């Protein structure tokens, strides 16, 4: 059998290459671990339960700090399904700004259907809007009637924005004696 020098294995060379690869791999692990050790205390201290949003988790874990508590609070908020209630009612550490955002988002997402229902003075989108607005069931018919009668003042143009619609609706509610208590601040 013929001896081919190209295919001969120099074991010592391979050992040196293998050791060098291990050293480089360990160096990368050392750098990554160092970076993590430096950054982790800052990341953990930057998270408070308030970062998890509003809801049951933020109420139950109020005053607890740390990344783990933040994740737990966000998980409770998400799985208990109560953030919509909190934003609508202003409870569960949800501020009024969140309620206004929820109303504006609802108007924006349902703009065309809401315009049709407001013109008719009835419909599911108006009922849902009244509920999100916080209007009692007994006053919802007055709410929908006011929006229907002032349709031109609410939907002022084809290019009206959801923020403008919310502001116009709030003006209509404020000017109606029976609904003035539902005026948004």
Automatic annotation (TrEMBL):
Signal peptide: 1-48
Protein name in the entry: DUF3015 domain-containing protein
Domain of life the protein comes from: Bacteria
Organism: Marinospirillum alkalitolerans
Pfam families the UniProt entry points to: DUF3015 (PF11220)
Record's keyword terms, sorted: Signal
